[in-house]
User: Fold this.
Amino acid sequence: MSDEKKKSFKGILLLLAVAVVVFILGLFTSSIMERRAESVAKLKVAADLPEWETRNEEWGKHYPKEFESYLKMADTNFRSMYAGSATVDYLENSPELVIMWAGYGFSKDYLQARGHSYAITDIRNTLRTGGIDKSPMPATCWSCKSPDVPRFMSEKGVAEFYKGKWIDKGQEIINPIGCGDCHDPKTMNLKITRPALIEAMERRGKKIEDFTHQEMRSLVCAQCHVEYYFKGKDKYLTFPWDKGFSADSMEAYYDEIGFKDWTHKLSKTNMLKTQHPDYELFMTGIHAQRGVACADCHMPYKVEGGVKFTDHHIQSPLNNIANSCQVCHRESEAELTKNVNDIQKRVMEIRRIVEKSIAKAHLEAEFAWKSGASEEEMKPVLALIRSAQWRWDWVAAANSVGFHSPVEALRVLGTAIERSEKAQGQLAVIAVRHNLNLPIPLPDVSTKSKAQAYIGLNIEELRKDKEKLKATVIPDWEEKAKARQGAIYKY
Amino acid sequence: MSDEKKKSFKGILLLLAVAVVVFILGLFTSSIMERRAESVAKLKVAADLPEWETRNEEWGKHYPKEFESYLKMADTNFRSMYAGSATVDYLENSPELVIMWAGYGFSKDYLQARGHSYAITDIRNTLRTGGIDKSPMPATCWSCKSPDVPRFMSEKGVAEFYKGKWIDKGQEIINPIGCGDCHDPKTMNLKITRPALIEAMERRGKKIEDFTHQEMRSLVCAQCHVEYYFKGKDKYLTFPWDKGFSADSMEAYYDEIGFKDWTHKLSKTNMLKTQHPDYELFMTGIHAQRGVACADCHMPYKVEGGVKFTDHHIQSPLNNIANSCQVCHRESEAELTKNVNDIQKRVMEIRRIVEKSIAKAHLEAEFAWKSGASEEEMKPVLALIRSAQWRWDWVAAANSVGFHSPVEALRVLGTAIERSEKAQGQLAVIAVRHNLNLPIPLPDVSTKSKAQAYIGLNIEELRKDKEKLKATVIPDWEEKAKARQGAIYKY
Assistant:
């Protein structure tokens, strides 16, 4: 090769090398630009969503990452305390609960809750909401199940929503808990859509606008994960927070207004059913005191394709320790899991003591009535049972087996034991006064089915009635909803 | 000035400047060297201390920083739950305790513990150790009070130390808890000087040599801050750990060997007195699980004059948050204090419920006996009272008002409530069976002095006897000790 040619060849090689480098740089730039574009897409305000878009799939078109993570709830149940079962039957595991709730819906059917995307399926399926022949629940029971609830309220009024029977609003409440329950479709800001929370805070002198964004990351959950009751004949959903958030304060509130959820079928006690005071219990714990919000552990941030977003696969942090606990705690997954288990095991030990004690008190009270005990004799006993079960349920009904605030949970359970054991002591005295032998004879209610039979439940009948509802009424609900909103989505 | 002179002047200035800089450098170097020397002094092994040097002042000559910090205990009492009182009189604050300990020393006198340097003063002063006419306690009671204890044991044998009466060994036990209790005088290594801990660990298959240095930083405390009992007629100090460290395991141990600390004067229950199971409770808590040792919070490291040393001013970490809690926790002193208070307040609420309940059970049991209840009727009641009070005391006798492991503390207290309330229920039944009216009439024991009078204590007599001891016997002890060891030191 001549020198001339050599030079020219070298020039071409150099040119090629430069071209390759430039091409690779271009690829990198393109990749970076794409990620940017994705980030920007995330920030894009979905101005084309209508104010009451209740179909989660429609939101999902604009927020695919959030929606994809939301859909994972369909696969995962919340972490179970009991091995080997995806959805725990609490009544099988603790037949005492059947006795404790005799005369109330929870004695019929009480399964471990599943993810939000099951909200509609599960409220339709539970025996608590009944069938066609018997439909015992008020419309208020739909309140937490769907973004269709605030839509309906905005169209026809809040009080109108709560009115009437559960069975009469099934065609309206179609889409499971989702985007519109917590987000403003115009700005994507967090939004309180349930009036009960706004009203309760206002009675406490607080406006929702006064809360910080971090507080809102718990308050959107507190729309539903709280203690509440159905007020008056129109079953207006109300949070009993006027005197405070503690088990003691809420009990004082209920006692003052003489409220009862139901009359116990065996003991005739004017009972309270505590409804998962997750927010109230959590607020007394160390995580809340350190400024942690529900979403920090149950919906931690996640990065995919350069985009940081909130994981909408709401679940136990124990399924996702790396992104939840380990953001703050520098211990291994095994150790953190052990710490939680150690706490829950202790809380469960005490909870079981209380359950057994209260169930026994109900049965003994029934026996006392049958043996001729007077109203006057029974009055203090029933007051103790009411208070004990309220306090037990204040811990038991809340998620986390006390982990959200173990010390407060055990304090409240401690006061429940005191009351329940006192009730039993007084019942023994009544029995002796009526010349009965001790120990008071108790029925065999050692399994769910035995206990349900004892309290007079015909589960077979309830199941048949439910099947009728599913075969006839529910398809009709879906037809009507389809006509209103287009497709019905199933996960 | 000629150029020559100017140059020469400049030269002198330069020389001076250099001299100044060198001088200052020298000062710095000297300062650094001194600090080094101090550090080295700290590390110097005090080879001239005899094996059983029990005078803390003699150790202090070699370890002035540690000793100076130790002496601060003479000024500071442990943090009080109760405002306005330096040394809390627990019996004044909770007269129920007098009833609960009827027939046992603690009903006479129970003050909040003071720092280690008060160990000898306070054991001499308490009414529990009695006077000359009545000296109820065995020599074993000295076991935790002084480095003279292992000295005596090494000279005359362990069993010989435990034998006999408390009053007979006062001339031997002179120097308050100090250096020789936890350190080897030759190497300054941590050392277990109390055979009870070594023996208990051996029965559990563990040798002291197997523990890490960090574990030793708790184990030296566990020589005394544990549950123990006096075994057999020779009162051999024994830790009841053979079945485990929990309240449940130790109770099972005592039940199996049929042990009692005393028979309750009112209820005739075979009682157990729990002795501050600080180590056992702490080991169930999150701090222990994270590898924290007692010394980390109660004796944190300190730097003075370039020397890092362990602060021997043993006290509540709440008096020293910056060096204890804040080494790990990045929250303000106010917030950390609030967190501890929140926990202790809840534990105290439940503890008080149990105290009132157990005291009532004792009084009602006394009434039942007086009303003719039979052994057979009372047996299950007394078993419940024994178990309830053991469990209450397991938490109450330990330092920290449950903070060392709040969840375990509340679990154990929860089981105490259950037992105590059951006992009361059964007592009510017994009363009714014996045709007595309910509620069972109870005496007025609402103050310490009323309660002490009720259980038949003549406190005035006990005080006079104590004064006699202080006027005659104690000076004699000190004379004898002086003859043996030279000066007697008082802080």
